[in-house]
Amino acid sequence: MPLTLSSLSKAVIETEYAVRGPIVARAQELEKQGKEIIYCNIGNPQALEQKPLTYLRQVLALCEYPELMEQAKNLFPEDTIATAQNILKGTKHGLGAYSESKGVRYIREAVAEFIQKRDGIPADPDAIFLTDGASKGVQAALRMLISGPQDGIMVPIPQYPLYSATITLYEGKQVNYYLDEHNNWKLSRQMLEESIAEARRFGVTVKAIVVINPGNPSGAVLDEENIKMIVQFAKEHDLTILADEVYQENVYAPSMKFVSFARVMAQMNVHDVALFSFHSTSKGFLGECGHRGGYFEIRNIDPEVAAQLLKLQSVSLCSNLPGQVAVYCMVKPPLPGSPSYARYEQEKQAILSELGKRAKILADGLNAIPGIVCNEVTGAMYAFPRIELPPGKTDTEYCMALLEATGICVVPGSGFGQIPGTAHFRTTILPPTNKIELVIQRIAEFHKNYK
Predict the structure, then answer these.
(1) Would residue 22 count as lying in a domain?
(2) How many domains does the chain have?
(3) Max CA separation in the chain (angstroms)
(4) Alpha helices (H) along 128-260
(5) What is the DSSP letter of 101?
(6) 10-residue block means of pLDDT along the chain (451 residues)?
């Protein structure tokens, strides 16, 4: 019998991923027809003209083709060459061979040093798994947690569709909790309690809570008090915490700073709440989405469970080696005073400074449009403005019409979740500054005339 839609898994058919849905497919069709498209639908920095970091690409080049080492002495800084040599020595067999299932130990040791320096707490290289981007780590954690159709995972609304898609695919239950849009997208203890009580009323066994900080799509940064509240909630309800922290370098408001869940839990002396924390080379200021580098760290996990997690990771043998090298470059940048340092810092600060400028331009510009309200973008790479729509219209219709009229590709809020009766869209802050200004102008004109 030939493979047909009716013979596929129901879970596969029901799985949706909004950031690459029908609106993006239509954008690609229009682009083929010659229309200029400004893609604001996905956090893909280098597709929107962000330049890769010189240091990282030089290290990758030497690791991929070690024969360049001798010639590179006249082209690349000494510390870049030494870094590549040390990585290759750590891999033992180069980038063309499998590594350990957790990833190259030399690189995991560098990640542990990074966490220890960031948080001031010990980190164990054996509790770190290198992955093909943070997404694969998230999927591994959810695969471990969801053991049956009544197992629930608490997910923020709005959320990143990776979570809703994966929970659907693994046939678990998505348990929504709403972020407080009128309070800079913070979490409310009352809302969390109501959410978990409602799920349990329907027989759902709630296993974990997902927290995205800085927020996608909200663009908000959680403060330490909010994180403490979440840890206490998880402790009282025996929940695992999935801390999506891939935007930890993307904090733009001077009054805000990123604080990890691992650090807060250590400060609270909480050692009985299981924690998965995720990081990625795709975001921050690296923007290396195509290299698919990431890691997750586990804390307070039973050794027998950790062994099952390792078994699950070993099914894919290991994550890709160039991505692992990118992770090393992220967590082990050039040291002050080294030959590569000045250029690295200049490129890093230029990227973060420009992102901060665009975040303000975008939020201020959207707020100046009658019928659109946007919270300050204090972190991450996105804004999630609330829009007033004519009676009977949906946010999906609005975003498709916006695309057709202006060439601007954004994602409807319904793809991320939103309070019933409200409408939003998500846009990135990644287009070059002159295009961000163009995006605002086109949205303003479109929104004024949309009927």
Answers:
(1) yes
(2) 2
(3) 68
(4) 133-145, 161-169, 189-201, 224-236
(5) T
(6) 71 64 85 89 83 94 89 88 94 90 95 97 96 92 92 93 89 92 90 94 94 91 94 96 95 92 96 96 91 95 91 89 95 95 95 93 94 92 92 90 92 88 91 89 91 79
Examine the domain organization and report whether 196 and 303 are in the same domain: yes
Q: Are residues 133 and 22 in the same domain?
A: no
Specify the 3-state DSSP secondary structure of 96. coil
Give the pLDDT of residue 132.
93
Nearby residues of 437 by Cβ (< 8 Å), 6 or more positions away? 361, 365
Kind and range of the H or E element at 266? helix 261-267
For residue 292, tell me if it sits in a domain: yes
Query: Is there a single domain that holds both residue 95 and residue 39?
Result: no
Full residue range of the structural domain in which residue 303 is found: 90-331
- Pair (322, 412) in one structural domain: no
Residue at a domain's end among 283, 309, 331: 331
Burial class (CB in 10 A: 0-12, 13-18, 19+), 86: middle
CA distance 308 to 282: 27
Q: Is 140 exposed, middle or buried (0-12, 13-18, 19+ CB in 10 A)?
A: buried
State the Cα–Cα distance between residues 50 and 283, nearest whole angstrom.
Answer: 11
Q: Are residues 277 and 396 in the same domain?
A: no
